[in-house]
Structures are given as C-alpha cells and as structure tokens.
What we know:
The protein is mainly α. Helix content is 47%, strand content 11%. A hairpin with a 5-residue loop joins strand 1 (40-46) and strand 2.
Amino acid sequence: MGQGMIRFIDILFSLSGLIFGTPIFLIITMMGLFDTGLPLLFQKRVGREQKPFTLVKFRTMKLDTAMVASHLASSSSITKMGFFLRRTKLDELPQLWNVLRGEMSLVGPRPCLETQDELIAERAYRRVFDVRPGITGLAQVKGIDMSNPELLAEIDAQMIQSLTISSYFLYIVKTIFGQGRGDRIMK
Length: 187
C-alpha cells in the first residue's frame, strides 16, 4: 500500500475522529481534571526517521509517576479512571492530533520513548523507522508489547512489509473491538 494512500486515509479519519469525537474528548477531559488535575499527557517519542515528536494522550497514571515505558511502570501508579481508559483504549484518542499533523499514522509501529535504547536499535536494524509510528498495528492486536524489544521490532517489520489496505483497516477494527491487551504493567 502506497504511503500517499495511507496519508490520505490518515488525514480523512483523524480529522473526522477529532470533529465527531469532540463530545467524548470534552467528557474525558473534564473527568481527567477531577482524576489527576492534568488530563493530558505530553511525552517525547521516537518517530519516523528517528526524529523526536511530542505524543499526546489522556493521562492514565498519577502525576508523580516516572516517565518510563508502560511495562516498567507499577500498576499502583494507574488511576481508577486510567484503568478504564486503558481497557477501552480511549487514552489513545488524542493521538488523532498527532496523526493529523503527520507525526503518526493510524496504523504503524507504536512509538517508543527516547530512552528505550534496545528497542530503538532493533527497529533501526529492521528499518522500522522508515514509516510513521501508529496508534495500532499488528503487534498490538497480537498482544505483543515493548517488554520484548527484539520480537516487537520483528513483528513491526513484518507488518510494514505486508501492509495492505485490507490489513490496515483490519488492525483498526480489531483494536476498536478490543483485540490485544495493550502494554503489560508491573504488579
């Protein structure tokens, strides 16, 4: 599938999602104000060609939680609302802004933190950074998280090489209907 076609679909769906999702965004933002005081999280991530960008999501962890990969964070740092947002994947909705800006795609490898050196090296070796990172993808629907950098980079590369218009939409549909468990959290 060509990058131009992917970008067109990304713009169309992210813009539509931002417009029609405004009531949901407002409700979650208001609830987030009561939950943590700061409903949005802005975090530096590694994007296409290893260029950094600021990812935006709904906050799911307490304010004093260290900025580490989800699989390294303690489950005690996740708020009650955060558990709900993660389970329903609603915490990802603000990333539609990143998609619209061209920093991300709806489908692609999940963007990692700048401190995840092993994953960055594995992805660089497999040329995963040749494409925009995504909100969801093959690894997410298979339940593979960032705790296994080599396997994740391998699955990301496999997805990139085999991506078609039908698999693009299939990953989105599977994510919407709850396939995949998201990043593992330490107990």
